[in-house]
């Protein structure tokens, strides 16, 4: 131990950095697959249906003024947690620093801080039930052991983000009672959650790097915006677990379910036929290629 009271790097008892999910695991196969992009709106909407999380996003986030940039930055962060290797821990620390000053009063008059375990753990937790439920449509139905493995890997992501084991249910069997209690006691149709499933919300047009695309969008965005908003609402509600839908007060009809099943079946059949360079996002593709080269 050095003079500051910290354990020195040479000490065998020093705290080790958390490990990201293992190469070849469940998240390694699915997180960077383009099909997972369809699940992100449901997870984000479930996050902000928490009164404190919704209040923080409403006050501090740029999701209204820069939704495309915010989405790109969030996706980059998720890819680093899973595929970043040594960069994963640094990204987790960056995310915590980003949320350090986010605090206020939630919709029920309670004081909150975004890094309070009750809030921070919920933001992380939502990814698991959404991925498991949507995965039945977009990938394949998982076995109980695969669910346990996915949850173990999701716990590793939580540690990357700075969550302690005591902040998170440690097994799938412990997770579901926690999840159902949160739906019953905390989750509500917050202002931000309602906006994310609205089909007439204001939405600035994307600003792609290509000058040609920017020009095309300038003229076509008035037609494309309502189409995109309807599609976003459709996949947001459709890929959200039914009990979460009910907690937020989202309607879902049998006709919508039939359309979702048809759409999902097409995606499930066609995406695996794509070459890897089109099927996986760039960071995932590069990490998978390095891993395969190293295992040969």
Can you tell me about this structure?
With 296 residues, the protein is mainly alpha-helical. The protein has 15 helices and 2 strands. It has a two-stranded antiparallel sheet with strand order 1-2. Strand 1 and strand 2 form a beta hairpin.
Summarize the structure.
With 296 residues, the chain is an all-alpha fold. It has helices at residues 26-30, 40-48, 51-60, 67-83, 87-98, 117-125, 127-138, 144-160, 172-185, 191-196, 211-238, 242-248, 254-270, 276-279, 282-295, and strands at 103-105, 111-113.
N-end to C-end Cα span:
42 Å
Helix content: 55-70%
Task: Record the strand order, biggest sheet.
Answer: 1-2
Q: What is the H/E order?
A: HHHHHEEHHHHHHHHHH
| Unreliable residue stretches | 1-14
State the major sheet.
2 strands, antiparallel
The general outline is globular
The overall pLDDT, averaged over residues, is: 92
Q: How many helical elements?
A: 15
- Residues in β-strands, percent: under 5%
Count of beta strands: 2
Structural class of the secondary structure composition?
mainly alpha
Backbone CA Rg: 20 Å
InterPro entries: MPAB/Lcp_cat_dom (IPR018713)
Protein name: Oxygenase MpaB family protein
EC number: 1.-.-.-
Region (Disordered): 1-24
């Amino acid at each position: 131990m050095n003079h500051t009271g910290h354990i020195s790097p040479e000490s065998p008892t020093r705290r080790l950095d958390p490990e990201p999910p293992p190469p070849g695991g469940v998240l390694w196969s699915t997180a960077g697959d383009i099909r997972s992009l369809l699940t992100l709106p449901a997870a984000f909407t479930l996050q902000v249906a928490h009164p404190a999380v919704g209040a923080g996003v409403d006050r501090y986030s740029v999701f209204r003024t820069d939704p495309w940039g915010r989405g790109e930055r969030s996706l980059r962060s998720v890819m680093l947690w899973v595929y970043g290797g040594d960069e994963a821990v640094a990204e987790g620390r960056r995310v915590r620093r980003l949320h350090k000053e986010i605090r206020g009063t939630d919709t029920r008059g309670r004081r909150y801080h975004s890094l309070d375990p009750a809030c921070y753990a919920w933001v992380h937790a939502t990814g698991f039930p959404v991925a498991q439920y949507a995965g039945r449509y977009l990938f394949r139905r998982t076995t109980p052991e695969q669910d346990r493995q996915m949850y173990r890997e999701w716990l590793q992501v939580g540690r990357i983000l700075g969550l302690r084991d005591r902040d998170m249910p440690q097994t799938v069997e412990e997770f579901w009672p926690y999840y159902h209690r949160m739906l019953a006691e905390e989750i509500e149709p917050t202002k931000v959650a309602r906006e994310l499933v609205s089909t007439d919300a204001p939405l600035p047009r994307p600003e792609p790097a290509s000058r040609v695309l920017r020009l095309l969008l300038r003229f076509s965005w008035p037609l494309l915006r309502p189409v995109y908003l309807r599609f976003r609402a459709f996949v947001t509600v459709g890929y959200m677990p039914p009990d979460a839908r009910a907690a937020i007060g989202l309607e879902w009809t049998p006709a919508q379910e039939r359309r979702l099943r048809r759409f999902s079946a097409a995606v499930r059949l066609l995406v695996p036929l794509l070459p890897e360079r089109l099927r996986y996002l760039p960071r995932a593709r590069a990490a998978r290629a390095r891993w395969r080269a190293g295992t040969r």
